[in-house]
Design goal:
This protein has 398 residues and is α+β, with helices and mostly antiparallel strands. It has helices at 76-121, 131-138, 145-162, 167-182, 193-200, 213-223, 226-240, 293-306, and strands spanning 2-3, 9-15, 18-26, 32-38, 41-49, 55-61, 64-70, 260-266, 280-282, 287-290, 314-320, 336-338, 349-352, 357-364, 375-381.
Length: 398
């Protein structure tokens, strides 16, 4: 298939870059010739369909019509000429489609290779190299309330310092979180980790910003600054304690009713190529999802409206878990759980621990990806992060 800028299209065979054999030629004015070519010229029987509805059959020689009569659908020579040309055009269009698809695949391979090379050139971070991992290995399980609040204060102050925010604002944020959490002090007298989970779900924001505690923690983990990770890791271990399945005695837990969970967000165009089918990666932060698709839709709408310069495409993540985990604790996702001590009832938040592993299963792109018709990316959650490589690439966005 050959297309010219003025709208002219030739669909058919070519030999030595010349039109040859049965083909369909469409002029820019809408008239269509279906017939034989030889040495780049009409030769033999051919049918012309004019845009005004008329149709003629003619015999061509060296590009010129020697005789022309109205097209007769009952004349086998007329109809067979038309059918041969249209069949040749169909095959040419199919071949062109395959060629375009091959070119797109080749382009995608090149872009992925360039992405991989870029990541390698930057000596990109991995979980294995992260300051988070180093700090996490040094922390111990929270036992007392003062350990929780000490880590909270230090993490907020360290983050504020690295973000050039006033220390008095950090103090105000800490006090607001402390006061809110202590309203539920009875529920975590015997299990401090419940207080950590309460903190995660707080809707309090850092003064002068829209940054909630959960966003602050994830931003800190993304930056992975050693001075901040020292304190964030303590809080993360506290939150994780209620997400990670007990290795010795698997605990019962609510299971995703659809064998999957949902997350709504936006996804900048520059990061789309990272999420190619088959890619396995880790998420450098907690990943909050929901049992309910409508909750994810609300978060997608919120994120899409907030990101206006530029306006990022909406995306819904669908994360599959092993359905056998519903009845078999061994098949249960070992690093996620429903958040049950929450300040936001009704969200049905299913939380994955930092650096959880996912594999891209399917990508469905939307021609107009707003929050009503977002992109949809389907992932498979790893069964157990401990069984996965530590040097996997990190998601640039989630």
């Amino acid at each position: 298939v050959y297309k010219w800028s003025d709208g002219t299209v030739y669909s058919g065979e070519r030999k030595d870059d010349n039109k040859c054999g049965p083909a369909v030629y469409k002029w820019k004015n809408g008239d269509v010739y279906s017939g034989e070519y030889k040495d780049n010229k009409k030769c033999g029987p051919g049918v012309i369909a004019y845009k005004d509805g008329r149709k003629t059959f003619g015999i061509y020689e060296n590009g010129k019509c020697s005789s022309e009569v109205p097209f007769d659908s009952n004349n086998s020579e007329h109809t067979e000429t038309l059918m041969r040309a249209e069949e040749s055009a169909r095959k040419a269009e199919e071949s062109a489609t395959r060629a375009e698809e091959s070119a797109r695949k080749a382009e995608k391979v090149v872009k992925n290779a360039e992405l991989e090379a870029s990541l390698a050139k930057k000596n990109h971070k991995t979980f294995a190299k992260s300051n988070f991992k180093k700090a996490y290995k040094k922390t111990e399980a929270l036992k007392y309330q003062h350990e929780l609040f000490s880590a909270l204060l230090n993490a907020i102050k360290a983050f504020a310092k690295s973000s050039n925010k006033p220390s008095d604002e950090a103090d105000r944020f800490f006090k607001a979180l402390e006061k809110e959490t202590l309203e539920y002090k009875d529920e975590f007298l015997d299990e401090v980790q419940r207080g950590a989970q309460r903190l995660w779900t707080s809707t309090k924001t850092f003064p002068g910003t829209s940054l909630e505690f959960c966003s602050l923690i994830n931003e800190a983990i993304r930056r992975d600054e050693a001075a901040v990770m020292e304190h964030v890791a303590v809080l993360a271990r506290g939150i994780n304690a209620l997400c990670i399945a007990e290795r010795k005695a698997p605990r019962s837990m609510p299971f995703p009713p659809d064998n999957c969970v949902y997350r709504g967000a936006v996804l900048p165009e520059e990061h789309m190529m990272f999420f190619s089918v088959g890619r396995k990666y880790r998420v450098p932060g907690f990943l909050a999802t929901s049992f309910e698709r409508n909750v994810a839709d609300v978060f997608c709408q919120r994120a899409w409206r907030q990101n206006t310069s530029p306006r990022h495409p909406g995306v819904i993540w669908i994360i599959d878990v092993d359905p056998e985990g519903k009845t078999n604790p061994v098949k249960l996702c070992q690093h996620a759980n429903l958040v049950q001590h929450t300040n936001v009832p009704g969200e049905e938040e299913y939380l994955f621990v930092p650096y959880s592993v996912f594999t891209v299963k399917k990508v469905t792109l939307s021609p107009s990806p707003d929050y009503n018709t977002p992109h949809v990316i389907r992932l498979q959650a790893a069964h157990d992060n401990l069984l996965e490589p530590e040097h996997l690439p990190l998601a640039p966005w989630y």
